[in-house]
Amino acid sequence: GIALLEAGTYSVFVSSAAGGGEIVVGWDIGPAYATAYLGEAAAEFFFSNIPGITLQEVEPEHFESFDFKLINAQNQVCYVDAKFWKIGPQLPDKEEQQRIAEKLHRCGGTRAIVINFYPAESEPDNCLLTSRSELVIIPAAFVGDKPWQAAVKALKEVL
Q1: What is the percentage of the chain residues whose pLDDT exceeds 70?
Q2: pTM, rounded to two decimals
């Protein structure tokens, strides 16, 4: 799970029911910066312990575009944009999808995975493969304090 401990102090607590480890990451920073760091820390753990993927750092010139990259089973370069947003499970609008697709093409990747690590209170309607085949948008990696199985399944389909 992910928790706000007190004003200005954010922490990530993630554990794996399959016998994986537990990480606890905490920062004493303001909310504007915490969302980026929490998303990245949760992404590293989520991908390495749930789908079994090791994330790689992006090239320095793509640092501001995506958080990580990975090579999927089809030997395609996939870029990951880890979010930590308290928003509903809506799909980003067409302009935002276009912006993400343009970033992906500038980086030379095949697929962009945008995944939100802020824990949802209830299961979103679905994981979304958009009308753009190169985009996968996952509105919640966690429901409450547990990994959302639909998110894990959607990732396994593209990885």
Answers
A1: 67
A2: 0.73
